[in-house]
Specification:
The complex is a heterodimer of chains A (415) and B (106). The relative contact order of chain A is 0.05. Chain A is mainly beta. Chain A has two helices and 41 strands. Chain A has a 41-stranded parallel sheet that branches. Chain B has 106 residues and is mainly alpha-helical. Chain B is built from five helices and two strands; from the N terminus they run H-H-H-E-E-H-H. Chain B has helices spanning 12-25, 32-39, 43-55, 77-96, 100-104; strands at 59-63, 71-75. The longest helix of chain B has 20 residues, at 77-96. In chain B, 29% of the residues are buried. The chains are: A mainly beta (415), B mainly alpha (106). The A-B interface holds A 64-65, 83-85, 87, 100-102, 104, 115-119, 121, 132-136, 138, 148, 150-151, 167-168, 184-186, 201-203, 219-220 and B 1-2, 4, 17-18, 21-26, 30, 33-40, 83-84, 86-88, 90-92, 94-95.
Chain lengths: 415, 106
């Protein structure tokens, strides 16, 4: 059959059209074989029409208002272009999809881009190179390269290898593997999600264990399980109900609460920090307040002027009450700068220290020191000092409650 | 067919953000008919919104030489800035327990 036209409100029984199909408004297409209608070229629908079978064409254009309904599968080899909305009960397979209003389907398989102005609803599976939605996207399992949604995006797990950009809220209801996730509003993830990078400005919540190479938190982040990462930069609030493993840098500029153990290569704290136990391979810097229940251990530990730390401190070299100049060189981050200057001149306070070398600066106070070498600055206060090699500095201008003891053996550090 | 959940009434700024997000989906230029279905607002109501957005410097109108093609709307860099700020502000207010509508758009 050559080019074919279905009039407005008409009903046509078709099978194979070797040409174009033009369908008027409120018309109905049925398959004469009961299964499939094939159009070799383009199909044009004037508006709200109905296709009561599977439909296959080269490209499909729906003009004007109304929803095109397809009771079956829709296969479009090139472009599926819909001005208003389309509702397909089965699969949509297309080269490219461009819908102005809403798209509803059970499964979408798109080789290229899928663009929807308003609402995308895919019940079971969504596969595409990139998906751009202006309003809301709700999809089942996804296999995508990129996802850009203006408002709200909800998926049921899957893989998004490239960028995810969502303005309002992003939620996954099943484990998701992702590339670069940037959501300005809210992120809700289930347990066992894995990703390359997360940037959040609002709320982030992971319902269980979470793994991500890079975490940037500028809002409120809550992980209800263990977390593994390479770099964490948190300038908001970070709450972790499990343990945290960071293989490179962990910078916290706001508030951090870790219920379990923190293991990291480097740790910089500016603000408030709490953990069960902290084990750091290299350097710890503290500007602000920190507390651990079982202690903090690092190779080099700097507790800057005006900072407070509650718990046992273990290290190779420990410097307490270090001047602010070093802090101001950290970088230009607001929280670090602000805290650094606010804390200058205030008393630095720590508890028991176990180290090879301890430097107790001016206006610094600690409880017991167990170290090989202890250096004191004028105006420092210590309850007890036990050393094996040397006690130096302005000892006569320091306040030590008990007379310093030179011992042959130091007790083993608790960490 | 599941209908999207939508708040009962969108504020002017929410509507502006929605319009800009829909245009963002079409970087080569969005047409008003398609846009109206995406935003969920009839064309006669959408036109003054587009005029407002253009006067704020958030939109640029492109007129095609081909009469059938008509007008296209594209975002300016300022619009991208606006959208980023809008969503950031919205999320900040959510964290602080407020809302854009209540706290800024009375």
């Amino acid at each position: 059959m050559a080019d074919y036209q279905v009039p407005r409100g008409g009903v046509a029984k078709l099978e194979h059209i070797d040409g174009e199909l033009k369908v008027g408004n409120k018309a109905r297409i049925e398959a004469s074989n009961g299964k499939l209608v094939i159009v070799s070229k383009s199909a044009y629908f004037a508006g709200a029409s109905q296709v009561s079978c599977n439909f296959e064409c080269d490209s499909l254009h729906v003009q004007h208002g109304g929803t095109l309904r397809v009771n079956g599968d829709l296969i479009v080899h090139k472009l599926l272009d819909v001005n208003h909305s389309i509702d397909v009960s089965g699969l949509i397979k297309a080269g490219e999809i461009d819908v102005g209003g809403r798209i509803y389907s059970k499964v979408i398989e798109c080789d290229g881009r899928t663009r929807v102005g308003g609402f995308l609803d895919v019940k079971e599976k969504l596969e595409a190179r990139s998906v751009d939605v202006g309003g809301t996207a709700e999809a089942g399992e996804v296999t995508l390269q990129d996802l850009n949604v203006g408002g709200v995006a909800t998926v049921r797990g899957g893989t998004i290898t490239g960028k995810i950009r969502v303005g309002g809220k992003f939620e996954s209801k099943a484990p998701l593997e992702f590339g670069d996730l940037k959501v300005i509003g809210k992120i809700l993830l289930p347990a066992n999600c894995k990703g390359e990078k997360v940037s959040t400005f609002g709320r982030f919540s992971a319902a269980g264990n979470f793994e991500c190479k890079e975490l940037e938190n500028k809002g409120r982040m809550e992980i209800k399980g263990n977390c593994k990462s390479q770099i964490i930069d948190s300038s908001g609030k970070l709450t972790l109900l499990g343990s945290l493993e960071v293989s490179r840098e962990f910078d916290t500029w706001g508030t951090t609460e870790i219920s379990g153990v923190l293991e990291s290569s480097n740790l910089r704290i500016a603000g408030s920090f709490e953990a069960q136990r902290v084990l750091v391979n290299n350097e710890i810097e503290l500007v602000g307040q920190a507390e651990t229940r079982e202690g903090m251990k690092g190779d080099v530990v700097f507790v800057h002027s005006g900072s407070k730390y509650k718990g046992i401190l273990v290290g190779g070299k420990v410097e307490i009450g270090k001047s602010y100049e070093v802090v101001s060189n950290w970088n230009t981050k607001w929280a670090g700068q602000n805290l650094a200057f606010r804390l200058v001149g205030k008393e630095t306070r720590v508890e028991d220290i176990y180290a090879k070398e301890v430097h107790l600066g001016h206006a610094s106070r600690c409880r017991k020191i167990f170290a090989e070498v202890v250096e004191l600055e004028a105006g420092c206060v210590a309850e007890e000092i036990n050393y094996t090699k040397e006690l130096r500095g302005e000892i006569d201008k320091s306040f030590i409650n008990r007379f310093p003891k030179k011992v042959t053996l130091l007790p083993n550090p608790p960490l | 067919m599941k209908q999207p959940r939508r708040s009962p009434k969108r504020s002017k700024v929410e509507l502006y953000a929605t319009v800009l997000e829909v245009i963002k989906v079409h970087p080569e230029g969005a047409r008003i008919t398609k846009m109206s279905y995406g935003v969920g607002v009839p064309i006669d109501r959408l036109k003054p919104i587009l005029n407002d957005l253009a006067s704020f410097g958030l939109l640029q109108t492109l007129i095609s030489e081909d009469k059938d093609e008509g007008r296209f709307y594209v975002l300016t860099p300022r619009a991208f800035e606006f959208l980023e700020t809008y969503w950031k502000m919205k999320s900040f207010l959510e964290v602080f327990g407020g809302s854009v509508q209540r706290d800024f758009l009375v």
